[in-house]
Amino acid sequence: MRRLGDLALKVYVALVLAVLYIPLFAMAAASFNHGRSLLRWEGLSLEWYLRALTNDRILTALLNSFWVASAVSLLAVGLALLAAISVDKLSSRIRTSLHNIFYLSIIVPEIAEALTLAVFFISVNAPLGSATVVLGHLVWFPLVYVVLRARMAGLPPTYEEAARVLGASGFRTFFHVTLPLLGPGIVTGGLLIFTWSWDSFIKTQFTRGPGFETLPVYIWNAVGGRGRGLSPEVNAVATLSIIVSIVLAVLYSRYRSRL
Amino acid sequence: MAVSFGVILPSQSQIVRGEVFTLSYYQQALDPLFLKILARSLLLALSTTVACILIGYPAAYYIAFKGGRYKNLLLLLFILPLWVTFLLRGYALLTLLGPEGVLNSILLNLGLIREPLYMIYNEFAVLQGMVYGYLPFMILPLYASLEKVRKIYIEASRVMGASSLKAFWKITLPLSRPGLVAGSLLTFIPAAGEFIIPSFLGGPSEVYIGTMIYSAFISARNWNWGAALSMVYIVMILVGVLLYMKYSREELRI
Lengths: 259, 254
Prior knowledge:
The complex is a heterodimer of chains A (259) and B (254). Chain A is 76% helix and 0% strand. By secondary structure, chain A is mostly helical. Chain A has one domain (56-256): MetI-like fold (Orthogonal Bundle), CATH 1.10.3720. In chain A, helix 1 (2-31) crosses helix 12 (232-256), helix 2 packs across helix 12 and helix 3 packs antiparallel against helix 9. Chain B is an all-alpha fold and 254 residues long. Chain B has a single domain (19-248), classed as MetI-like (MetI-like fold, Orthogonal Bundle). Chain B is built from 14 helices and no strands. Chain B has helices spanning 2-8, 14-17, 24-29, 32-66, 71-79, 86-97, 102-109, 123-147, 151-159, 164-175, 177-192, 196-201, 209-219, 223-248. In chain B, helix 8 packs antiparallel against helix 11 and helix 13 (209-219) packs antiparallel against helix 14 (223-248). The radius of gyration of chain B is 22 Å and the shape is flat. At the A-B interface, helix 1, helix 4, helix 5, helix 10 and helix 11 of A face helix 1, helix 4, helix 5, helix 6 and helix 7 of B.
């Protein structure tokens, strides 16, 4: 009886996993179909990948996604580092309210945050474009902050104290002791915000200017909305984007285990 | 973030148009039609959360207690979808279930159907898509709290003669409450304002608060109305979360 229950549970978990993955595999499989319509399988081909990667609009979108995510990650890591190091100098009451504000940007749903940011940019007359997109994504920097603080909590202050006692200046201690110790935290936090930025559709859509497209925005413009149908080029770039996400996830879990 | 909230708080954001302070956009939000949409969004979020608990709990239970040497692999398989954006997962559902999708193509080729089936563009399809999207958000916190349940408690209750059902009901389930609370919040809050899934899978009448905010801002360019809607959404979520916290006697820990 108990065996049977375990077996049923095992089959059930396999089913749940199948449901989670079948749509993604279906999309990936469709991207290799030679024909335009999904209704007929016309043989394996890389045609749609070739077409997608020679399409200027898609290439620009890919490049934009990449540099926005890189810029956001670098800036966010810098910002989070400064915040994580200096926050200890604040009184605990201010620190708590600061943390609450930080957490707010993680917990507030993306669409509400996106609209808030857009209204803010418009009200201060900032021209919407790539810069506002980067700034908008940067509001997610608490993600990195949380990871860094978690790493710092696990580090004894002895290392820094030893460096100072042995005569290192504050700067030297920071660059030669603190920063290397925070390394895994920096990489993990950076990967996390890189993914959020890479994947962001709603926030980008609200804060971008006309003509500036990232990959998710391109995909939405090509197939988003009701009854817009499917596009084999989108299947191809979507599959590529998922591969990027999976690589990021694997890297993340490797560094995460060193935290 | 703080600054932007400062801006949205006088949300009717006349700042944008340089008009005077007005509550008229909130008045608009009290319109019965809008209240209906609000109720529908909450209902969708609630059914998504309940469905995710019912479907996710056994899976989380299996990984935590019976995963054995496959535990880490299973965990990874449930984490990976979280790294793929909803936009692509929504579109993937479309390629699978759409009228020209892969499933229809297989069924047509097998001769099981003559005409493509319309499996999407209705409310049930939206719910399916939501559960598909949010399930990992429920399973992971559930797993995390189930993992901490000490087996010895369960064994003790069994030794003292409790049936396995009773042991589950009296020991495992209450001890997994933090995971239930965290998973429900992680699902309910974004689900109430979900935009991507309904716009891929919903029919023309499936309007929710997320799709309304989107079209108010992007299509209609009515920022004030969009800001008022967002405020209603945020306040609603905050009140809901606080009530839930109070009711479930859990502290907000992130």
